[in-house]
C-alpha cells in the first residue's frame, strides 16, 4: 500500500539554525499538510497546501515557517532560526483530493532543538 | 474557535473488555469526523464519518456519528493488548483544509 514517507526520522539542531524537513506524499494525492505534536500534547495543524500554494495555515505557522514543493514528489517544511520550543514531532500528511477521503500520515520527524 | 473534546483521556482495561471512546465537537460548517489510532509514530486511519446514524465497522471496531448532538463514539469489543494506543478524533470543518484534533484517549489493555 502506498505510504507517506518522511526524512529524516530524527533531526537534532542547535538553536538558531535552520532545518528542512522532507516529505514524499502519496503519488496521486493533491492536498498536503504539516502537523506538529509536542511531546505529550495533541496534534496541531500547521499548514495545508494545494495546487502549489498554501490553502490554509494556523497561528503557529508564522514567518519562521515556510513550505515548498520543489519538484513533483517532495513537500518540505523549512523552519528558520529554530527555537527550543520548536522541539516536537512533525507529521506530514496527504489526501487524495475528494472530500470523502481521509488524510494519510507519515511516521514523522522528531525535531530536537538544543 | 473550533474545538474537539475527547473522553476519557486515559483508560485501562483488561483483555476481553469492551470500551467506548467519546468525541464531541464544536466547529463551524462540519464536513467530516475521523478516528485515528496512534501507536508509536504516525496516526493510522480508522474511520471517516460524514452522516449521522450510519455505523462504520471494521472487525472489532465500530463508530457512529450524531450530528445533532455533535458527538461520535468509537467502540472496541473483545479488546486485545494490541489495541493499546492513543485514539485520536479529528474534525474537518469550514471551507479550508484544516483538521482539528482532539487530545486523544490513551487506551491501555492489560493481559
DSSP strand content of chain B: over 45%
Q: Which residues of chain B sit in consecutive blocks of at least 5 with pLDDT less than 50?
A: none
Distance between the termini of chain B: 41 Å
Taking Cα atoms only, what radius of gyration of chain A do you get, to the nearest Å? 13 Å
Helix count of chain A equals 0
Order of helices and strands of chain B: EEEEEEEEEEE
Structural class of chain A: mainly beta
Count the strands of chain B? 11
How far is the first residue's CA from the last residue's CA of chain A? Answer: 37 Å
List keywords for this structure.
heterodimer, A: 114 residues, mainly beta, seven-stranded mixed β-sheet, four-stranded antiparallel β-sheet, 49% strand, globular, B: 111 residues, six-stranded mixed β-sheet, five-stranded antiparallel β-sheet
Can you put this structure into words, describing what you see?
The complex is a heterodimer of chains A (114) and B (111). With 114 residues, chain A is mostly beta strands. In chain A, 0% of the residues lie in helices and 49% in strands. In chain A, the strands form 2 sheets. In chain A, strands 2, 4, 5, 6, 9, 10 and 11 form a 7-stranded mixed β-sheet that branches. A 4-stranded antiparallel β-sheet of chain A has the order 1-3-8-7, with no helix packed on it. The radius of gyration of chain A is 13 Å and the shape is globular. Chain A starts with a strand and ends with a strand. By secondary structure, chain B is mostly beta strands. Chain B is globular. Chains A and B meet through β4, β5, β9 and β10 of A and β4, β5 and β10 of B.
Amino acid at each position: 500500500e502506498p505510504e507517506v514517507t518522511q526524512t529524516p526520522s530524527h533531526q537534532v539542531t542547535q538553536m538558531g539554525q535552520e532545518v528542512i524537513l522532507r516529505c514524499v506524499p502519496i503519488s496521486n494525492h493533491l492536498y498536503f499538510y504539516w502537523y506538529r505534536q509536542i511531546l505529550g500534547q495533541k496534534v496541531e495543524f500547521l499548514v495545508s497546501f494545494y495546487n502549489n500554494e498554501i490553502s490554509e495555515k494556523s497561528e503557529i505557522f508564522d514567518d519562521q515557517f515556510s513550505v515548498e514543493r520543489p519538484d513533483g514528489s517532495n513537500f518540505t517544511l523549512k523552519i528558520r532560526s529554530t527555537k527550543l520550543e520548536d522541539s516536537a514531532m512533525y507529521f506530514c500528511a496527504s489526501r487524495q483530493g475528494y472530500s470523502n477521503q481521509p488524510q494519510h500520515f507519515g511516521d514523522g520527524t522528531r525535531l530536537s532543538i538544543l | 474557535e473550533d474545538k474537539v473534546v475527547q473522553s476519557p483521556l486515559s483508560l485501562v482495561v483488561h483483555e476481553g473488555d469492551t470500551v467506548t471512546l467519546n468525541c464531541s465537537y464544536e466547529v463551524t460548517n462540519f464536513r467530516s469526523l475521523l478516528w485515528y489510532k496512534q501507536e508509536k509514530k504516525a496516526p493510522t486511519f480508522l474511520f471517516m464519518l460524514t452522516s449521522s446514524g450510519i455505523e462504520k465497522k471494521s472487525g472489532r471496531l465500530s463508530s457512529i456519528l450524531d450530528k445533532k448532538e455533535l458527538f461520535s463514539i468509537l467502540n472496541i469489543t473483545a479488546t486485545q493488548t494490541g489495541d493499546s494506543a492513543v485514539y485520536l478524533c479529528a474534525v474537518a470543518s469550514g471551507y479550508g483544509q484544516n483538521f482539528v484534533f482532539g487530545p486523544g484517549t490513551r487506551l491501555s489493555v492489560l493481559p
